[in-house]
Amino acid sequence: MKVLVASPEIFPFVKTGGLADVTGALPKALKTLGVDVRVILPKHKGIEDLGFPMKYSNHRISCQVSQSFVDAEIVESEYEGIKAYLVEKDEYYYRDYLYSTPDGDYLDNAERYIFFAKSILETIKATGFVPDVLHCNDWETALSPVFLKTIYQNDPDLSGVATLLTIHNLGYQGIFWHYDMHLLNIGWEYFTPESLEFFGHINFLKGGIIFSDVLSTVSKQYSREIQTPEFGCGLDGILTKRRDDLFGIVNGIDYGDWNPGTDKSLPARYTIEDRANKAVCKKALQQAFDLPADPNVPLLATISRLADQKGFDLISETLEEIHGLGVQYVILGTGERKYHDLFATLAKKYPRSFSIKIAYDNKLAHLMEAGADMFLMPSRYEPCGLNQLYSLKYGTVPVVRGVGGLEDTIIDFTSSPESGTGFKFYEYTKEAMLDTIGRALSLYRDKKAWEGLVTRCMKEDFSWEKSAREYVELYRKAIAKHESSGTDR
Prior knowledge:
Rossmann fold; 36% helix; globular
């Protein structure tokens, strides 16, 4: 079986969030199962400085975008034995950010990712690597299945390519003005409610949902939630219509990268049998955030995009009260400017108990997972979540809202003390969140009970092998669906 994984970001080349972790780790797990897997992504600024091989292979492509033909070069690279195709078009991708600046999205994002979606298909033709399945991820690649069944529907090189679209976050759909329809070159007949039109706009993700052979999202609970008005973000109707082709597979994590016993990012490593050095990591984390190095104070951490979806409206409302609980709290992330400004102000007000770094720093993220006592994830919605899985491995107890993948992966200790692996709340209120933090702090004061919970957390196994096997089965479903339906839906 041949699979091409397409994503706007793939670790270790580039990362802004969990999408890159997933699209970087899944191919490695697929390879161990015998899948011939390759990846494709834009050649973003900075990739050439990371030391990966860069082979200019003379594969040049040209894609029509409106009335112009846009040329690009395909650069071949690899990581850990996985071949990667990098689409080099500096006009689109040689930028300081991938999608947006702190002041807003890039104004040409529609053009950038229409081009990328077409470049994926042209790369297949140029390289001769014709996959059985094209595995697209999120709105930035969601138009590739649309183009396969419109512009390229009679292309003999691509007629056998089945498609899977994985929705990592339904809240990000790629919605643009209808004026951009000319950039697609597929005709205004596709600007209808049954196709790409969405309340007078173009919706890239909606197009992918309609035109892909099969669909997946990153937890079973989230696959159910997005078929409801509360979580469906306006697409619950079309997702319900395609429910027989919609599957949920929980993300795995790469224990080669996330393991406190082997993690080279840590000042000291530790294992489930000998956790003494977790205290060393806690001290280093407190120092990294300029907080007093106190081994006894409970230390909470959050690594996240600073956005309402991640619960930062709750966090901002309750930070004064969290301070009153006698804890330290550290945050790492970037996002909405209102949170940049608010948390910077609060950090100055409470310099001994609260600190934030407006950045993404992978090494520091590892230290936070190792050094914190608890990891707070009060998400409004959470398709899967990865940090709660990293936290389990590092013995850092998750405190989460029971939605999406957080519901699937964390068992509430209060409800199930013999099997619990964290603390959960359900109502999206500051009272519910503070009560749950309070429950965690109460157990923290009982050191024997707390250490028992930490041990149980570290025993959890969310390696990629199980998830990768489920993806292989889903690829087979995509191939069968494609063969049975032909090129027309």
